[in-house]
Amino acid sequence: MTDFAIIRKMLDLLDGSTSFDSGTPLGYDGTATISTPNQFATKAYIDGIAIAGSPDATTSTKGIGRVSVAPASAATPIFVGDNDNRVPTINTSTITAGMVEALAGTSGTPSTSNKYVTNDDTATAATADKVARRLAGGNVTVITETAGNNTTNAASTAFVTAAVVAGASGYDSLTITRDSATASGTQVINHNLGKTPKGIKFSAIAPVNMGTTSNKYCSGSYD
What we know:
Shape: rod-shaped
Strand order of the largest sheet: 1-2
Radius of gyration: 51 Å
Oligomer: single chain
Structural class: alpha+beta
Number of helices: 4
Order of helices and strands: HHHEEHEE
Distance between the termini: 147 Å
């Protein structure tokens, strides 16, 4: 009998020709102090340096950090990359809580059928289906209506001026007399304007002491 087979097995294990039995892992007889790079490391040693041996993460160094909220899966926490489509691609540092609250809109819920008005949907010139925007001087341009267009549209200054002139396209100054002895009644005044006037102004003079030779007169204006 000889120990050659056992010695051969040991030599093969040591030189790597034969693998160790995974069912019976090798181990120290106690807690080993690992101090040099070429010593066999224990599980306890690896577990200890997995965290303690890694640096804390910085803006320039990869390392250990903490998630800002509890991960959806504690077993497999996921960190979001810069190129993830859930990450805004613009600088959001200037966005305030008030700006976010304003996104609720003024009436109804914003949706595909209740959209926000964009700058392209506004106009300083009178444009159909556009929201009016004030000019640099503060005025708002409105549609120039045509005469006789009886609508509720806003009218421009030019239209109002033209309408006033058209409505008072003429005037007449005339004198009408009436015998003071004539019984009361109506007096027809032909203004010759061609349309019903929008306003009239007249003066009347009548004797104060009717039937006397020392008549005095008074005058008045009526609008």
